[in-house]
Amino acid sequence: MKTIFVAAVAATLTATGAFAQEDFPTGPVTIIVPYGTGGSTDSTARPLAIELERIWEQPVVIVNRPGAGSMIGTTEMTQADPDGHTLLINTAAISTAPAIQTDLQYDPEEDVTPISLLVTSPYILVGGANVESDDLSGFIEEAQDRPMFMGTAGPGSSSHFMSELVIEATDLPADIVHFSGGGEAYTNMMGGHSDTYISTTASVMPYVNDGRVKALSVLAPERFDLLPEIPSSGEAGVSGVDINGWVALFGPGGMDEELAQQINADFDEAMASDRMQDLLAENYALAGDLSPAEFREIYLRDIGIWQDLATSRGIGQ
Amino acid sequence: MELLANLALGLETAVTPTNLLFCFAGVFLGTFVGVIPGVGPLAAISMLFPLTFYLDPTAALIMLAGIYYGTTYGGSTASILLNIPGATSSAVTCLDGHPMAKQGRAGVALFMTTIASFAGGSFGIIVLSLFSPLIAEYALTFGPAEYFSLMVLGLVAASTIANAAPSKGLAMVVLGMLVATVGTDSQSGVGRFTFGSMSLLEGFGISAMAMGLFGIGEILSSVGAKRIAKVDKSSAKLLNMLPTKDDWRRSWLPGLRGSSIGAFIGALPGTGPSIAVFMAYAVEKRTSKTPERFGNGAIEGLVAPETANNAADQTAFIPTLTLGIPGSATMALMLGALMIHGIQPGPTLIVDQPSLFWGLVMSFWIGNLLLLVLNLPLIGLWVRLLLIPYHFLYPAILVFLCIGAYSVRANPADVLVVLGFGFVGYAMRLADLPAAPLLLGFVLGPLVEAQFRRAMVLARGDFTAILERPIAGTVLVLSAIVLIWTLVSAVLRRRRGPNPTEEPSSDT
């Protein structure tokens, strides 16, 4: 009931917002992608830009600013005017970075306006060649006899934070091994050098579908609608690991609320296009349907969770 | 016979007029962009990547691949003529290629490079089409311990590549490893020696560093110097470009060894072409009866790294296509091009998308053939580059170097890195210290460190567990033998008295 109400309010606000900001955009819109050309975030942003050009009838330019775990591009965005003409598409890295980078050059709360949750999907725990069990409870048991190696894409990556979260929630006997990027984490798991990796559906499913790694668990209380055959961590009696991965849209801090609403609505329209729906289906992911205010809550909540975890597990120290 | 059918299918895909056109466009663009000093494959592909968004996946990949090896080829041209490498891998080409140019044999060097590139590329393609799935599976058995041992072997070999005392080479390798510690620590995520600078968190850019050390260093030391390259209109004539019988005789074995080393190293997802090139050069110098010719325009020292480079460029596609895992930043872009079109590379790619896979393989070969056809007539043109007076050429090169450095990561700090290492490179020339080992130390240092620390975590802190692994153990023992041999032979040479540094060489 509450959700319907919120949605209704959001819809009304969106409508009035669109009316009030009839003149946006007044010129080309720059979307900063804080990762390299051809990466997964870039591959979401570029088709989105094509749809937005259609909606806005203005050029939409993708600018790749990779480096420092997405913080170079993110910092650049926070320094722009909050007029909606400079935006940022980033992953959950924007919520983990404050937990490990002590010398951030912006305030994650004040200098960032969360606008829209574009794509969301649960994290999946996958096991490699040496893992015998097929689900999380079996895996926890197996680890009692043979402590596991949990591979990550690097210190401070979401795979690292999620692995630490699983270790903390299940008291798993496991060591973290950091690889340079997801690719190395996968090859080492396939070759039996490490045991697990945690990433979102888009990243793990191609390898799961090939049968080279197995999906042990969706890290969520319930099974994921798009992949009902994978057991959930809730079924294994594990709680406290249900954080979702996402790709989201941000603007500089202090952006006008109505403007944020309008941009949120325009991106919703772009995400509803066939092109983006196909992309979502390929990646086993869902389009987000949150208002800027609702997404802000998630953004701040996740930052808090990662900061607490970093303190309790001694990450980045 | 299945292979023949597959190749036929590939040929059918590759020689459609559209795909041929894109192949040619890629190779053509690649060659010309690559000749610009300072622009390497990664920069060229990143810049041209968005273009391929609007093409069908096969055409897109064919064009990107064309740009990829076109740039590599063009980079060699710039290395030989100007001593300014566009990529790490062509830094080795400078070692003997540039001395050849100085001896008035630029045409021969370029000719042999073209042939070596084609031969190495063809070798790589044969390996790619015959053994892809097999190699991909084998590469998986390489864990951190195996990579660590391979890197150690590379480092030991590296100290001997330069034409200097082993102590100088070793010192530069270590210096390179030290410089490489700047940046994020691979296992804790803590910034090392970054002084709070976000640009330094990523470490120094490898291309920026290579451009500074070699490119700016070359320019600084040539300012005011009299032109030493013997070049006039006649060296651009076909007759003066043709290698002698002696050149051919000296080249075929190094070419074969270079191809094999390149094909092997290139197929490992954790290494990449630059290491293959250094290894191939080191092997040639070690096995040569006249190692003192290396660095003074030995044709073996040009052919081996060139074949290795091109073979590695081709086999680097093996992990990318069959495992879905890119071995280098350039390959990650190729993978991105596939993914954008909804194609997920993996073991099933060959089965699911046979026309794409085999079309690509055949287009690689056609691309290499096009390079040959395109570049043989162009050699004369490239050689004439040397006729441009320094005071026109060098300012232009400086601008290109800065653009090239910036374009790799779109980070202005990289331009400063180029300048900084330019002065370092110049100082090293004055002190007669070799730059190539420094570069190799810089490439291998972080890999050795990260792989060693991973291997130690996986061995739960027990170093003997690493030695017990068959591949890792063998390679480590081999490295120890090479190291001891180097030391012993150095001592023996000293007892025998100083060697003549230059033998009367038969190829001038």
Radius of gyration of chain A (Å)? 20 Å
- The name of the CATH architecture of the largest domain in chain A is 3-Layer(aba) Sandwich
Task: Characterize the quaternary organization of these chains.
Answer: heterodimer
Taken from the alpha-carbon principal axes, the silhouette of chain A is globular
Strand content of chain A: 15-25%
Give a count of the beta strands of chain A, DSSP E runs of length 2 or more: 10
**Rg of chain B from C-alpha positions?**
22 Å
- Helical content band of chain A: 40-55%
Low-confidence stretches of chain A: 9-20
**Strand segment tally of chain B:** 2
Number of DSSP helical runs of chain B: 23
Structural class of chain B: mainly alpha
Main traits of this protein?
heterodimer; A: 317 residues; alpha/beta; D-Maltodextrin-Binding Protein, domain 2; eight-stranded mixed β-sheet; two-stranded parallel sheet; 11 helices; 10 strands; 20% strand; B: 508 residues; mainly alpha; two-stranded antiparallel sheet; 23 helices; 2 strands; 73% helix; globular; disordered C terminus
Description:
The complex is a heterodimer of chains A (317) and B (508). Chain A has two domains: 2-121 and 244-313, D-Maltodextrin-Binding Protein, domain 2; 125-218, Periplasmic binding protein-like II (D-Maltodextrin-Binding Protein, domain 2, 3-Layer(aba) Sandwich), CATH 3.40.190. Helix content of chain A is 44%, strand content 20%. Chain A has helices at residues 2-20, 40-56, 71-78, 93-100, 136-145, 158-170, 182-190, 201-210, 257-271, 274-282, 292-313, and strands at residues 29-33, 60-64, 86-91, 112-127, 148-152, 174-178, 196-200, 214-218, 244-252, 286-287. In chain A, helix 6 links the parallel strand 5 (148-152) and strand 6. Chain B has one domain (2-496). Chain B contains 23 helices and two strands. In chain B, strands 1-2 form a two-stranded antiparallel sheet. Chains A and B meet through helix 2, strand 2, helix 3, strand 6 and helix 7 of A and helix 9, helix 16 and helix 21 of B.
